Amino acid sequence: MGRILRPVSKRVQLPKLLVLPHQRHICLKLLPLRPAPQSMHLHGFRARVALWSISNCQYHHSRKIKFSRNLATSTTAGLSPWSMQKQVVDALCSGERKKASDLLLDFGYRSRSLKADDFVGILNYCARSPDPLFVVEIWRLMELKDVSMNNICSSLMMEALCKGGYLDEAFNLMDFLGVSQHLRPLLPLYNILLRSCVESKSIIQASKCLELMEKQMVGKNEATYSELLKLAVLQRSLPTALLIWQEYNKHHSKSIIALHKFIWTFIRLGDLKSAYEALQQMVSLPMTGNIAGTVYGKFYSTILDIPVPSNKKLGPTMLDFMGDKQLDSCIHPSIMYLPDAISASIEKGQPGVRKGVQPLGLAHQTISTGNKKVKIAKLDELSRRKHLQLMKVLRWSFNDVIHGCAKEKNYMLAKKLIVQMKILGVKPSSCTYDGIIQAASFQSNFRDGLGVLKIMQQENLKPLNSTLATLSVICSKALQLDLAESFLDRISECLSPHPYNALLASCNVLNQPERAVQVFAKMKQIKLLPDIRTYELLFSLFGFVNSPYEHSNMLSQLHVAKRINAIERDMANNGVQHSHLSMKNLLNALGEERMIRELIEYFYVAEKLFVYGNPSLATDIYNVVLHHLVEAQKGQIAINIFKRMKLCGYHPDSETYNIMVDCCSILRSYKSASLLISMMIRQGFSPVTCTYTALIKILLQDEKFNEALNLLERTRLDGIQLDVLLFNTFLRQACYKRRIDIIELIVEYMHQEKVRPNPVTCGYVFSAYVNSGFHNTAIEALQVLSLRMMSEDGNILREKRRFVDEFILAEDSAAESDILVKLFEDSEDEFAVGLLNLRWCAVLGFPVCESADQSLWAKRIELQFHKRRLKESNYNSFKG
Fold first, then answer.
1. Whole-prediction pTM value?
2. Listed residue (749, 634, 623) closest to 696, CA to CA
3. Which residues partner with 291 through β-bridges?
4. Distance (Å, rounded) from C-alpha 480 to C-alpha 472?
5. Is 33 helix (H, G, I), strand (E, B) or coil?
6. Hey, how many other C-beta atoms are within 10 angstroms of the C-beta on 603?
7. pLDDT per position as a tens digit, 403-457
8. CA–CA separation, 358 vs 493, rounded Å?
9. Cα separations (Å) of 309 from 72, 224, 625?
10. Where are the alpha helices (DSSP H) in 459-512?
11. pLDDT tens digits for 595-652?
12. Which residues on neighbouring strands pair with residue 392, listed in sequence order?
């Protein structure tokens, strides 16, 4: 039997081809439409045609709709609307969209009277899927059959369109309902549209939705405020959130869920004060007894809560703030602490008694609040399930505020909040303690962090990965590397290299490259991608081999070149570009190893990457290169680089001028140094200690000791802080020239200025006496300088006699190794060198001098120094 075509009952009007702007690439087919009612506006008609055109993109229709009679007879004959809906949904689930479309159209033509409820099941599936295109096809059928829309169908249609991302069509649906159906969209429908606008991060469409809500005066409920808060967070606009908070407090009764959302918003916008106030209002709700639960587990006050319609007389709306970009940034209020009365009660272990901070879980308890007494509702009146839900919401809010304290570095408030939680009977979670430890991390107090971890273990709470990472960072900052590494090993999944970078930084501070190698290998093992900070630290850790303990050589330079190439190759593999600091560390590494050719090559690379693109970084790069060129005695190259800097228009700073003054000591040109100092002063930079040190070095090279001493005295009179490097400059040249008088004068000068010597000072003085044949004096001077190096007054052995017995006079041959192991590990290099010097003097048979003031040599040079000062004073008075 051939196919039987169902004739079309009447001729229908065909619209012209309509293509949406974002669908011009889709070939649209023409649809048969029933004539538009006379009352329908052109805007609604075009909106409906546009929506129908979307559906047509996937289905083929001719100008006359043809149905398969055999298929219709076997599938839809005698079926109820419920069975029809089930067949359509089954076809959609199995992916047979053509079959589902045919079933829908056939049912529409076989059924004489259709209602909106006959499509609810299909629309429900389309809303969950979502399937906005099939929704439009249902809408087309409802239009053809003159089926009136109801709230359920419109809500499901709106949900499907919004979930599918068809926001423009959703707005058109709103217009269509109000114009053609005379069905006023209710507030839940607008909430669905607003939520979709917020989820798609479309501020323009969200503003459009709010304008429609204002125009239709549908009001706002809790769901509306929730979306408005998300929109405020999306805009990073604290004024908008505060306006919403003000309106909510004025027109609505308190809801624990709503307060929780406000707290969440304020924390993310950086307003810890407002979040804390909202938290205290949340805590006070259960205290008054007017708390009730809903079937959804939400908690509200028993006060009547009616959605408030929009009222433009109330002041500026959220739209006003959303459109004002100047209000996106605001000054955050100061942090608010717990009231004093609450703090006092916490310290005494008693419940808080002010501002709604009362304990939960106590039946028939009366608490005084000023001159009034408030009776707390019995916990027994709430079911266990509602009580657990209430505790959960309170815990969430406390966690948000505690994490806000961590962001604001307010450790004291975070500790008080967790005490308040325990008073209220809200059990802290692992997330709670995570916020506490993060707040403690800003004080680098690893002992507090370990104490919190111990409490978590007592409460059988497993620390989060972020908690372990924070503890590792705290321990790294405290230079507790073993603890830091142990916490890193306990992390099950690390998504950020930050804790590993903190450990690498500590390895750099303690000069432990071997441990740093293990840390970086661990990162490779867990496949954690390094960031630029990782490579900055790697260049600082492995960029040099011998420095500062030995001079560079060809072997060390070869090792450095291999390391730098390996680090840069790893950077290229991970797609990480050089930063200003990584390039600076690289240049420092090359300079420390005296790799001048490579230093110049990378300097040109740094110019292209940073100097030309960001002139503010130019001076820093130039200073690094100039410093290492001067250290390597490459004065002429340094001068050329300095001229290049001036020609390119980059401004030298104080450090640049000081480096170039030091460069003049290589050329032994006091005139050039004086000219640079003159330029330096004209640029507004004052000479510092290193400036005078360079000038004195030039004078001493020409053996102009008197002029150098006069310049030293002028430096002191100008209020310049004298340091040991300046005095060592004198001692070095005096030692080479065997000027014992200068040696003794400078040593006493240091004592008078309270500048403690260092090992270099001891070496120059000892060598000067030995080279001149004064061996006993050399030993005595070495003892005095070692004591002054160990303590400012030189009486360390008198105060701590155990050093003499344990280290200096110990007969055990391992005493020297004990000094090196124990004291060098504690970064007390000068103290260790002083003990070694005193032990060697004792081994040579010289008696131990327990105090520098007992030394005859120290008394003699002090007397000579005062005589010289008196003589100079009398000469200056006579000359004046």
1. 0.69
2. 749
3. 301
4. 9
5. strand
6. 23
7. 999 888 888 899 899 888 888 888 899 999 999 998 888 876 778 888 889 999 8
8. 40
9. 50, 12, 69
10. 465-477, 481-490, 498-509
11. 999 999 999 999 888 877 677 788 889 999 999 999 999 999 999 999 999 888 888 9
12. none
| pLDDT score, position 158 | 83
In degrees, rounded to 5, the angle at the alpha carbon of residue 624 between the alpha carbons of residues 623 and 630 is: 85
Determine the Cα–Cα distance for residues 292 and 860; give it in Å rounded to an integer. 91
Read off the pLDDT band of 117 (50, 70, 90): confident
Q: Residues 109, 110, 116, CA angle at the centre, nearest 5°?
A: 70
Rounded to a whole number of angstroms, the distance between the first and last alpha carbons of the chain is 137
* CA–CA dist 532, 572 (Å, integer): 11
Total residue count of the chain as it appears in this document? 880
What is the 3-state secondary structure of 599-625?
HHHHHHHHHHHHHCCCHHHHHHHHHHH
Domain ranges across the chain: 21-185, 233-428, 431-642+663-675, 730-879
8 Å CB contact between 662 and 673? no
Q: Within the chain, what is the greatest distance between any pair of CA atoms?
A: 141
**Helix axes of 670-682 and 689-701: crossing angle, nearest 10 degrees:** 160
Give 301's DSSP letter. Answer: E
Q: What SS3 class is residue 300? A: strand
Q: How many CB atoms lie within 10 A of CB 369?
A: 15
Beta strand segments in 756-842, E: none
Whether 31 contacts 56, CB under 8 Å: yes
CATH of domain 431-642+663-675: 1.25.40.10
Alpha-carbon dihedral angle through residues 376, 377, 379, 383, given to the nearest 10 degrees: -160
What pLDDT was estimated at residue 624?
A: 94
Contact 654, 688 (CB under 8 A): yes
Of the CA atoms within 13 Å of residue 139, those in its CB half-sphere come to: 33
Query: Using an 8 Å Cβ cutoff, are 376 and 366 in contact?
Result: yes
Amino acid at site 602: Y
* Helix axis angle, 618-631 to 596-606, nearest 10°: 170
Question: What are the residue ranges of helices labelled H in 367-429?
Answer: 384-407, 411-424
Residue 767, helix vs strand vs coil: helix
Between residues 257 and 329, which one has the greater pLDDT?
Answer: 257
C-alpha–C-alpha distance, residues 843 and 838, integer Å: 9
Tokens of 870: 């008196």
| Six-digit token string for 738 | 């065997």
The encoded tokens of residue 418 equal 């967790």
The predicted model gives 385-396 an average pLDDT of 83
Task: Give helix 42-56 / helix 132-144 axis angle, nearest 10°.
Answer: 120
